Amino acid sequence: MNTITILKKIKVCLRKSNQENNLFFPPFEFTSDFSFFYKNQFKFEQKYYKKASVFFLLKELENNLYVVLTKRSKNLSSHPGQISFPGGRVDKNDNSILHAGLREVEEEIGVKQESIETFGVLPPHETISRYIIYPFVGFIKNPIEFKINNQEVEELFLVPLDFFLVSKNMQYHKNFKKDQYTGYYAIPYGPYYIWGATARIIKSFIARFQS
């Protein structure tokens, strides 16, 4: 399957919503640090959650698609040194959750909004730190040069999309507690250990792509 065909398939799978401005607590299933399965009820009351927006960002290199990931700075107060998607917290001045994600991408890795084609959004993810993460999927459509904000990002690296689509590369760390399975997903890649919310969002993308 060539790059153009893959991108068309992703667009069809996601079908970009026209309701980005209202994507705060949408009435559809989401994923959670507290469960392996899709959920329809948050663990805590909605007022106790903070909101974040990230981008599952695709880049084409030599006729192959790659996913852009970052290693968070060790100086950050939350999740230092962990692997994440570019993005961050939704501020009160942001026009929408989508706008917040695009703003954070530019601040962290220097990719401007006009260089990104947004395809759609994956199910939100509820974290143990009481964030709701909204994962948008986008494609870097223009030639760009990454400019890393060293205060927030220690390293940027690319992973072939094909790597994530191979099921044996995904690990399942399960526990059975209080009559339900809990645990986390993990995807080791070279020196990088992708796990937690980031791996769960990748799992959601794979489920949509392969459906």
Compose a concise summary of this entry:
By secondary structure, the chain is α+β, with helices and mostly antiparallel strands. It has four helices and 13 strands. The chain has a domain at 28-162: Alpha-Beta Complex (Nucleoside Triphosphate Pyrophosphohydrolase), CATH 3.90.79.
Explain this structure to me?
- The chain has a domain at 28-162: Nucleoside Triphosphate Pyrophosphohydrolase.
- The protein has 4 helices and 13 strands.
- It has helices spanning 3-14, 97-109, 161-164, 196-210; strands at 30-32, 35-39, 50-61, 64-72, 83-84, 87-89, 116-121, 125-126, 131-140, 153-160, 171-177, 180-189, 192-195.
- Strands 1, 2, 3, 4, 5, 6, 7, 8, 9 and 10 form a 10-stranded mixed beta sheet that branches.
- Strand 8 and strand 9 form a beta hairpin.
- The longest helix is centred in the C-terminal third of the chain and has 15 residues, at 196-210.
- The two termini are 16 Å apart.
What is the CATH homologous superfamily assignment of the domain at 28-162?
Nucleoside Triphosphate Pyrophosphohydrolase
Which structural category do the helix and sheet elements fall into? alpha+beta
User: Judging by the overall fold, what is the CATH architecture of the domain at 28-162?
Assistant: Alpha-Beta Complex
| Global geometry | globular
* Helix and strand pattern: HEEEEEEHEEEEHEEEH
β-strand amount = 35-45%
Q: Can you count the beta strands?
A: 13
The major β-sheet equals: 10 strands, mixed
Q: What percent of residues adopt helix (DSSP H or I)?
A: 10-25%
Distance between the termini: 16 Å
Number of helices: 4
Compute the average pLDDT: 87
Q: What's the CATH topology label of the domain at 28-162?
A: Nucleoside Triphosphate Pyrophosphohydrolase
Q: What is the name of the CATH class of the domain at 28-162?
A: Alpha Beta
Radius of gyration: 16 Å
